[in-house]
Amino acid sequence: MTALLEVKDVSKQYGSDTLALANISFSVKEGEFVSVIGPSGAGKSTLLRCINRMIDASSGTITFDGVNVPTLNKRELRRLRTKIGMIFQHYNLVNRLSVMENVLHGRLGFKSTVAGALGIYTEAEKQQAVEILSILGLSEQMYKRCDQLSGGQKQRVGIGRALLQNPKMLLCDEPIASLDPNASKIIMDHLQNISSSMGITVLINLHQVEIALKYSDRIIGVSRGEVVYNGSPDKMTNEDIVRIYGSEAETLMIDVGDKDVGDKNAG
Ligand SMILES: Nc1ncnc2c1ncn2[C@@H]1O[C@H](COP(=O)(O)OP(=O)(O)OP(=O)(O)O)[C@@H](O)[C@H]1O
Questions:
Q1: Complex ipTM, two decimals?
Q2: Which residues approach ligand 1 with their CB closer than 6 A?
Q3: CA 46 / ligand 1 centre spacing (Å)
Q4: Residue 11's beta-bridge partner residues?
Q5: Distance from Cα 143 to the centre of ligand 1, integer Å
Q6: Residues 62, 70: contact at Cβ < 8 Å?
Q7: I need a labelling partner for 13 at 20 to 30 A (CA). Which of 19, 98, 135, 171 fits?
Q8: Where does the record place the ABC transporter domain (predicted)?
Q9: Which domains does the chain have, with CATH numbers?
């Protein structure tokens, strides 16, 4: 099967002295659940941002769904972004608006500026929003303002908004970094379900090794802007963890064969 996303020799230089990504290459197949792990400052966020052009890579090629991302013009970029749903650590919701309105914002990329500004959505779009909110367990919160929700509920709204785009891929930048273990488990279970039952590709930045091990089809380990592991969670050894995390690794040492670690943490 051809790759949905192909990142080839991508580098990102900030200013003159920070090489955040150094010749990164990997690919992601349609429907795969791939986690990017690595220590703080390794380049995980930079990598995700280059993929949907929130920032521009300094060099290299990024092919998504057959198009070369770095060369897209504004209009083509808008089209690309409708196919990639973004999930953020801090949710990026409009807090004073309702859950429903925030989820409907997932359709904004498909509308003229005027229709978007007037909040004009079709019945089909509203119906789909209702269905997605039900899948995400938010039916009762539909008309609540987002500032009345818990962090975990807010992140589910973020996922709902991304799903309403009918995306091919979800790019998740530390989606559980601000959540407690229970809420984290709920979010990760939803993302897994989205990947396995909806066939949507998930590329996710994670801090927690044990969660990456539990949920991923494949793990990409990044250290100092380079890919130092790219393989199945089952094959990851403690030496691999040391290669990825360096001196931080000791605190992360776990029995990598024990995939229940994440469950225990989630209580
Ligand atoms: N806008 C920026 N300008 C300059 N340097 C930056 C910028 N953004 C990130 N960096 C630097 O690039 C490197 C990679 O940062 P990045 O945020 O991608 O890492 P990360 O792995 O996502 O880290 P964290 O887990 O802490 O979010 C770091 O050295 C960081 O200081």
A1: 0.96
A2: 14-15, 18, 20, 38, 40-46
A3: 6
A4: 59
A5: 37
A6: yes
A7: 171
A8: 5-249
A9: 3-262 (3.40.50.300)
